[in-house]
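Support case: user asked for a sample of complex input and structure output to validate their parser. Sending the pair below.
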Amino acid sequence: MAEVQATPQGVKQPKPFDAEQEIAKLWAKCQGAQDEIRRAFYSSRAAAIAAAGDDADANAIALNAWQFRGHDIAKSYFPRINLTKGSLAEQVGQLLVGSWRSQGAVVKLVKSENPDEVFVEWTRCPWPTAAKNYGAPMAEDVAGCDLMLQTAVADVALFIGRKINIETTKAIPRGEGKCVRRIWLEK
Amino acid sequence: MTRTIFDWDYSQYPGAKKYPHVFSPIQIGDLIVPNRIKYAATEDNLNSHDGYVTDEDVAYIRARAKGVAGGICTMQGVYMDERRYGQGYVGQAAAWDDKFVPGLKRLADAIHEERAVANYQLMHCGRVGGVETPFCEGPSAMPQRLRLFKPVYEMSTEEVEISIQQHIDAARRGIEAGFDMMEISGIVGYLISNFLSAYTNRRTDRFGGDVYGRCTFMTDIIKGVRKEIGPDIPLIIRICAWEQLDDVGGNTQEESMIVYQEAEKAGVDSISVTVGWQESIVPVISRDIDFGSWLYQAERAKQHINIPVSMAYRLFHADMADKAIADGKIDYWENCRPQIADPLMPLKYLEGREEDIRWCVACNVCLARLFRDAPMTCYINPLCAHEHDPDYYPQAAKTKKTVWVVGGGPAGLECASIASERGHEVHVFEKRDKLGGTIIDAGLAPYNDDELYRFIEFNKAQCDKHGVEFHLGEEVTAEMIEDELPDTVVLATGSTVRKPTFFGGDRDNVITLSDALYETKPVGDNVVIWGNKKPAIGTALALAKRGKKVTLVGTERTVGKDINPSFRWRYNIFLRQNGVVSYNDCDVEQVMDGQAILVTYDGHRVPVKCDTVVLGERDPNPALEQAVQDNSIELYQIGDAVVPRGLSGATHDGYKTGLRI
């Protein structure tokens, strides 16, 4: 075995470790990445609408984009679903919570007495703000988000062969202060 | 009325006495097969991309046919639809038209020339098919769990009926080509398994519904094929005894046994018992699964049906198969990967040449290659898929040379074995007192990694056979080379520990992998391993099993980048299960008392608890290179001495260099 080398020469001695500074920098970068997700979505949306021409239905194109996102989100959920492990409604709800937390939302799972029903509650979501910043109509944001979630849940339902539903009972873009989605399994 | 294809008399062979059950005849349908060995089909991606059989595939199959010593040799499954939705592999053979019959006949003839029973296989790949089309087809448009596979198009009732007829037509072509047996593949996610499974079949027509309804596609094919090929051709089906899809609502094990009974009723003569799908989250055939783990499934199948059953999964050795047959758990022995690694494996058992068997290490690189549209290869058999190429076989050396192989690891031994077989005078120098190099250390990792050492034993036996002289405990020096002046020096000196590039690399608690594995230096409770490739992972798992809290830190973006993807997922799970945390795209910046500072690729710093740092990065060992060159001696460098890699790189380097000297 080769002998272990001494401290490398000619390299500047690292500064003392400052945990607060490191965490602050990482956090800023995480938030930057979250913003980048929305920037990428809205710039792609704008490109698709521009490419479609003046006569195209911009709303339909945007909704299509949201639907694609729904399909893709579902794909990322398939390997995580496990019918042998607890409430399916809770698993789906928890997956949504995880997705949106990573995008910067303040969101939590609220269980009900019925194991086949859960609520996902968003008290803050960066997407309506992004819609505003990028000039997308708020109506599109509401409809797009609903369509995306319905698509994702429908794909999950198809994947595991169970009837799962999702409905929006409250929406931030409608001025209701928070988004609430009810997820439930049909018997 | 029974019949045989070829007569074999095993009475004079030692293997027949040692494994009397394996080398006894079996009746499948009306056919008497002289022994109980079957080479199970595997794709090899060696055929043309439009489905024609090639010289490469014929040579590949011929080698396996020779190996079964009169038993059954199965060709790779054919797809049978012109639209190519059934094609799951770019080099899969086709049988959707009579124009493919001459090519298929070449395969049957090759098998017959080796006096083996030629088995033909039908394989529509279903939801893992459509490799050249935008989507694949299945009973229901079920989304794919793995992004690797194409979106599924739901077949209409008419299309299902057409597919049944395509199976029947393709079966006829197999018989016209001269095959003796017919096999239908309904495993791992292929079309028949898609129809059988509650997970993928949501149809409401006569091909869906309860398990009996879901069997309709399979039983219609069996009945149709049986009618087409007649009663004399044995008909086998491969189906899952357990899909391992409980987490997504797949068939229960009880339903699978109903499937078996329906297949028997429909007219098959034998069932090959399999376990798991490609979409299963449970491992089935990787090295970490103990030998014989799935035999209970075959035994269960035998309790439900009255026709012979066979099994392949993790049943690598003749003694296991012989006992399983004797115990009534299986009727005959299938093997696939062991004959990819050594096509002649069963024949060597028969001839009493077990020391000559090149053992499969269950790494699954063969599968990983196929899924990525690459031709078949084998981790430890460099000749695999090159059987057609005369340049890949050892030829007698034109000039006999004195060859010094420096290093008795896998690369050196493989090279020594081949060079000596060609007639060179070969000396292997190993500074340790044991052969094996890094494989000795690798074998200390858990999850059956000790199986890797069988490769060293194999090569040692080959070297002994060809008169290689071993110099154990002897380190070659520049002076020795200058004094003795061998004709050729092969530097198989392996790797060296990469010198630390972080601050504190000279501390006493910074130790090597070998120090950690053999505990020749103290190992604290909190260990940081510098490196995130295979040697680091194996050491991390070994230390974690000893109760250490281990953190892997490596500059590769993913952990285990040097492990093939069909096995890497297993290591990811092992790491998680053993609480090993992995920082990828990271480096160690500084080691201090009780902690190490890590730095991400973009400069963020993370402190982790650390009592010991283990150096798990490697560099090529350049030792003796200059000395050899200074003396104008023919020089080769192989294995980790060129670039630190795994056993496969070492073996392939060693083999090819052994051919070249």
